[in-house]
Amino acid sequence: MLKRHGYAQVEGFGAVYADPKATRAALDANGLAMPTGHFSIDLLENEPQKVLDIAGTLGMKAIFCPHLAPDLRPADREGWLAFGERLERAHATYSRAGYVFGWHNHDFEFKALADGSLPQDAIFAAAPSIAWEADIAWIIRAGADPVQWIENHSDRIVAVHVKDIARPGENANEDGWADVGHGTVDWKGLMGTLRETPAQYFIMEHDNPSDDERFARRSIATVKSY
Prior knowledge:
Domain Xylose isomerase-like TIM barrel: 2-224
GO molecular function: isomerase activity
Protein name: Sugar phosphate isomerase/epimerase
Number of domains: 1
Distance between the termini: 23 Å
CATH class: Alpha Beta
Pfam families: AP_endonuc_2
Shape: globular
Keywords: Isomerase
């Protein structure tokens, strides 16, 4: 279905790593590549060879740490600096193996701590080498300015999650998300800004689509029109 709608690449995550060889065979059979993938901080730190084996089998170029569970999130800037140092150490491991390594954000990194600082600033300060997979819609949901963040950290941006936010009161059954180009995010303007960065991968995303094919079809059509 993805190939039929014009996709050439997909991004990997945990559920498709159970049998990497079978996943690779399915990708190859449909003319798709998987240049990027998400791996948990636990796996990245504790089973690096497993990560490398999966990434190698699937032909990845970039590895991203995608999330930090609520019960693991630091409560202060010092804690977030320490987390950034962990990402910097992971970068050393995976960059030595030839991969781009970076962080993928949600909204919690842009919510002020008690001292007024932001977790995302602390992460970047403590991890000067890591790349960034910028999830624009989460930045907006956090109340931050995506253009400012893109411009301030443009040199880090290797990948972008292209996701849209439904109008207030709409798409409650889809957790308030929308197909790209059918919500409130100014993707036409943002794509112009993002084209000034090193971003190579633009990943259409919807956290809870009620119709996978509708989302895939409409989203890629939107982005191709820009």
